[in-house]
Amino acid sequence: MQENPTITAAEIARLAGVGRAAVSNWRKRHPDFPAPVGGTTASPEFDLVQVEQWLRTQGKLPELATADRLWRHLAAASDSPAAGLAAVGALLLARQRGSRSGSTDAQLTPLLPDVDALTDELGPQGAFDELWQRFSAPGPGRPFATPDDLADLMIGLANVGGGSVLDPAAGSGAILRAAARAGSTSMYGQELDDELARLAGLWLALHDVTGEVSGGDSLRADAFAGRAVDAVVCHPPFGATNWGDDELGHDPRWIVGTTPRTEPELAWVQHALAHLRVGGHAVLLMPPTVASRRAGKRIRGELLRRGHLRAVIALPPGVAAPHGVPLHMWVLRRAATDAPPPARTLLIDAANGDLADTAPRVLAAWRAFAAAPDGDVEEAGFARAVPVIELLDEDVDLTPARRQPAVVGEASGEHLVRTRERLAAIVGELPALLPQVTPAPDGPDGLFLTVGELAKTGALQLIGPVRAGTSTPAPDGPPVLTVQDVLTGVEASGRIDDRFGQEIPLAVGDVVVPVIARQLIPRVVTTAGAVLGRNLYLLRPNPAALDPWHLAGQLRTSANEKQASSLSSTMRFDIRRAQVRRLSIDAQRVHGDAFRRLVAFESAIRQAASLGAELAQLTADGLARGVLRPDADIR
């Protein structure tokens, strides 16, 4: 860290909310304006503390929250934002572990009062999360992190459950944080940038997540050589020209053959496979050219022949850096050497539309395919389970758009009509689904009790979350409701494995809430038969005292999201702190019915958005190919 935090004239202008010309005028008209302490004549730098004092004296400095003030000083005083945040993170971790002593970077000393204030307000973990949010915002010197929605989709495809996850190009840890949200019990990462590696490791430690993040080059100096994990999920660097091919020519990780020099991304694919246990999944972001480049043809062919490559998914443009490239996701599964390879590979073309709309559809198609890998999965223009023998042609081209069945002739017209009818039916139901509400004449009313207080009074049981344990999985055991199932609103899709803890059957009327998520999302269980997955709270209301839909509706409020969370982009919820409005059981049932209808309304809105996008695409394709024509067509 630098000796003194400094700030440029342009940054002073942003700090005071004025134009740069105003700063120039202040320097000319006010003799007491701080003198430059560095920089050049054309671009002078000023002492940040002196500037803030002067602005405050002049009444020109807006009052800042503690976290904002601390981050501004930290970013200005640090050689890099990552280094500054890592220095504070190490201090917060020491305090979380009960130590307030020890060596502190001398340049950090002026910031200690704000560090103490933020820690007293939010705790060490909450303080780090607040600063992390500011570090993660786009800006100079900030790395491009994998966006949360994309990281969640990748983790969902890998089906990490409570298993172990490795990210060999971890960056600042976005994918590891997504794994934590999905219930992974142990996480490992490696990152070339030592400062980012240190930051990601601090996040794990401050959130009490088992694992480690090492610095270094994963391809040249694998920090986890010999370790097999349940899932490898990775956003590797693209287009590297010096990735170590000369020294790694006969590396044991090349399980399907030596990686060509011009195919560094396929080296990452083989690195991921080498770290998987048999049956484990890997999900990697890839540039689209890897699916068809001639130099990689042999490796692609071997991945298919040996049953490792299970799916290639084309994503919408701009979902992650580099934003100008429409990326692919490759889904791999470590196949047993003595098992017959699957006959089909899934290709999904989700390049059209928005990721938020297509992600549930991608997950549904993948799960349908994974449940029956030799089945004939086919959604015209979107997904197709392609016979491997068809892919092993002269080019071994895995580009999803080139392998999709076209929607032509009568089929396109019928499909369009059915889609239009489904959309019209859903839109027609929307007014009836939306609960009718009116403003309360006397404003807000009622008393509130926390979930912890309700548990003490016997109004509900608070069960879980299930921790990792040891069990003997049964082939016909009950399905497991996972965090991802709750977040996406689908039926229980998980399975009991040998790391599963206590089996807790779910009953109709139970309310489940993820421990870690980007939002507080409660879900009412409507069908029995599944068991509680890891990292889920189970709230079991006493039906004589508490209506489950009323409880779920109260939990989902924005006020409870703040009340129960760690106030970070990846929030850990303490559901005991959430507040529930106290009403008579009859009033609860009325409110519960309104909340239930609101959930149905939201689901219908999502379906309508998806069907609307599909209908627009079908119509455009049909018109362009001439299989559809406008009613007023003239020739």
TrEMBL record:
Molecular function terms, GO-annotated: DNA binding; N-methyltransferase activity
Residues in DNA methylase adenine-specific domain copies: 144-401
InterPro entries: DNA_methylase_A-5, SAM-dependent_MTases_sf, Type-I_RE_MTase_Subunit
Pfam families referenced in this protein's UniProt entry, alphabetically: N6_Mtase
Keywords recorded for this protein, A-Z: Methyltransferase, Transferase
Recorded superkingdom: Bacteria
A biological-process GO annotation: methylation
CDD domains noted in UniProt: AdoMet_MTases
Name used for this protein in its record: N-6 DNA methylase
